[in-house]
Amino acid sequence: MPDHPIPRPGRPVRGSETGRPLMAALDLLGRRWTLRVIWELRQGEVGFRELQRRCEFMSSSVLSTRLAELTEARIAETGGDGYRLTPLGEQLLDALNPLEKWVHTWEKALRN
After folding, report:
1. Three-class SS of residue 67?
2. For residue 8, which phi and psi values (nearest 5 degrees)?
3. Which is nearest to 48 in space by CA: 26, 71, 29?
């Protein structure tokens, strides 16, 4: 279990004493390595060691913590052969797609 409880809507989080849902989500997603773990899980179920390798060999303790947080947040779950996104996690990926498109526009703007 993580050292600090995972951000939840309705509880104080970084940037919001009231725990506005968007701020709670951004607090969770803004934790070091969290988005990378989600990104790697988009390809389907993966074991711990392979996930660690895909995440450029992040420490096993950080990976364990992030997976515990994502599991508690119901974004990831354990399966038969490792970890995978839940339906809620898949919806999160869908929500991030417009941001991924925007970053290409941003990248081009910064080159000019």
Report:
1. helix
2. -135, 145
3. 71
pTM tops 0.85, yes or no: yes
Ramachandran angles phi, psi of 51, nearest 5°: -65, -40
Closest CA to 69 of 96, 34, 45, 23: 34
Query: What is the set of domains in the chain, with CATH numbers?
Result: 31-111 (1.10.10.10)
- Output the tens digit of pLDDT for each of the chain's 112 residues: 445 688 989 888 888 888 889 999 999 999 999 999 999 999 999 999 999 999 998 999 999 999 999 999 999 999 888 999 999 999 999 999 999 899 999 999 999 8
The 3-class SS string of 88-108 reads HHHHHHHHHHHHHHHHHHHHH
At residue 20's C-alpha, the angle toward residues 96 and 55, to 5°, is 40
